[in-house]
Amino acid sequence: xxxxxxxxxxxxxxxxxxxxxxxxxxxxxxxxxxxxxxxxxxxxxxxxxxxxxxxxxxxxxxxxxxxxxxxxxxxxxxxxxxxxxxxxxxxxxxxxxxxxxxxxxxxxxxxxxxxxxxxxxxxxxxxxxxxxxxxxxxxxxxxxxxxxxxxxxxxxxxxxxxxxxxxxxxxxxxxxxxxxxx
Length: 182
Prior knowledge:
The protein has helices at about 5-15, 30-35, 65-75, 80-90, 95-100, 115-130, 135-145, 145-150, 155-165, 165-180; strands at about 20-25, 25-30, 40-45, 55, 105-110. The chain has about 180 residues and is mostly helical. It has one domain (about 5-180): 2-enoyl-CoA Hydratase, Chain A, domain 1 (Alpha-Beta Complex), CATH 3.90.226.10. It has a 3-stranded parallel β-sheet with strand order 1-3-5. It has a two-stranded parallel sheet with strand order 2-4. The longest helix has 17 residues, at about 115-130. The model has no long low-confidence stretch (mean pLDDT about 90).
């Protein structure tokens, strides 16, 4: 799946007339967080069986976030200012309660298993599906209109960024540091 494939996948999730949910368990930085934010409901169980992290850390690896990512962050995070700061700093959040406060998650299910979180997510999906269909879909797509318009417009700037010198240097440095930490 190429970059345009990923953007298309995010569009499919964000524009789905069928309710969608993400049960986050473990690390889901960058693209994982993007996919979770594109859904209608985001939940995690805590304590998690794996190390938890969420965030939009694209800038930390030298990627200039596409315009649609800014719209996705503004749609989900607690305020436009928080969205701007989160994207600029590229911080990963290891505390699910902080992630919830910022708007990355809707629910942190305490002292629960992933299966419990999936059950709660399923119940939310059924709740959303019980709302008169056309009215709910119109409300969802209306709230996401800016995001969906940007996702439908191919953004070649990210390709230019990936093949650029800065991204290549930062990615190379990151790979070297990961090899050292093995």
